[in-house]
């Protein structure tokens, strides 16, 4: 900031990190603006490959990671704007060191008097702009770091919950196990804090109670439960209006970031939710979905649904590809064909599991079941995900519209009263 005595030089009270802040923001802002899209691509690529437990861990890490990326991107953009404003004030003060000349403005006496009362010297404005830019930079980096640490901790807790659920044979839900572990870690710390606040002043140093509480705090400090592990938050809470305001600020920003990441994911999965389409007809049997046609689908973003080569079939065979979806198929195979993993190896095991999947994914063509349908073990060539392949002879079909119905296991996340009930099959219209 400009020195009041020499507006052509920066004040010695200027934040010493302003050059590094500008360098980091200028370089990192472009990467941070691209990172959310890269995380989206990774999410859509990995989600169809995972079962229930691993999918939950993926979504958890994705939401926290994208929230951190959004906070950093917003921080760096906002910081650049605030630093640009600070540079503009410094430059204008150098060009016009005399400041604002109210006498040259066409103001009435009352307004002029009010402006003089509210007038802030330019050096003070420059100092405030300098401090605000640095504070925004520090808060943004702090919040992003907190989210990443929280993501790592939450993912580790959920992994422990999955391990406990697996060892219990399914009697304990992984999410409940995770919450129980979290409670076992945090509740003793809350008890220690309350004991220290209410009784700590009455316990003599060296007494067993004093030693026990001190040992507890030391233990929790090693895993990050201390103000020293987050100095930015401590500085903010002790110098900017108290801990309540700091907690409210951080909680609000994190909530907005997490909500934005969740809403973004939902809108990418359901693009029709954004827009005034309430009166547009919706049907599970008459709707053409581009994901069902290989020449129209977006393999990077579309869900792993059955597809054929095109909506218009020209050749003698219709190529039906059914991607394997662990979220649905794993549980269905365990309950329908539990013997497929017992006493078999190699080709025998593969044949048994293929027969099980064939029974789960029956096909109906124009209302008639295809009893002679034969699946082959294949893969989706554009995503490298395992898939079933069936070549259906359509030479005898007359010209016009035809319809495939491919059965599938029900959704594991289906709930009673769902606005989008699962019909139990995928519908693929096509034309000859």
Account of the 3D structure:
The chain has 2 domains: 199 residues, no CATH class; 142 residues, no CATH class. It has 432 residues and is α+β, with helices and mostly antiparallel strands. The strands form 2 sheets. Strands 3-2-6-7 form a 4-stranded antiparallel beta sheet, with no helix packed on it. A 3-stranded antiparallel beta sheet has the order 1-5-4, with no helix packed on it. It is flat, with a radius of gyration of 31 Å.
List the main descriptive attributes of the protein structure presented here.
single chain, 432 residues, alpha+beta, 2 domains, 4-stranded antiparallel beta sheet, 3-stranded antiparallel beta sheet, 10 helices, 7 strands, 54% helix, flat
| Average predicted confidence as pLDDT | 86
Task: Indicate how many domains the architecture comprises.
Answer: 2
Q: Note the quaternary state here.
A: single chain
Annotation field: number of helices: 10
Shape type: flat
Question: Approximately what portion of the residues adopt beta-strand conformation?
Answer: 5-15%
- Cα radius of gyration in angstroms: 31 Å
- What is the structural class? alpha+beta
- Major sheet description: 4 strands, antiparallel
Could you spell the SSE succession in H and E letters? HHHHHHHHEHHEEEEEE
Strands side by side in the biggest sheet = 3-2-6-7
Tell me the span between the first and last alpha carbons. 74 Å
Number of strands: 7
Spans of at least 5 consecutive residues whose pLDDT stays below 50 are: none
The helix content is 40-55%
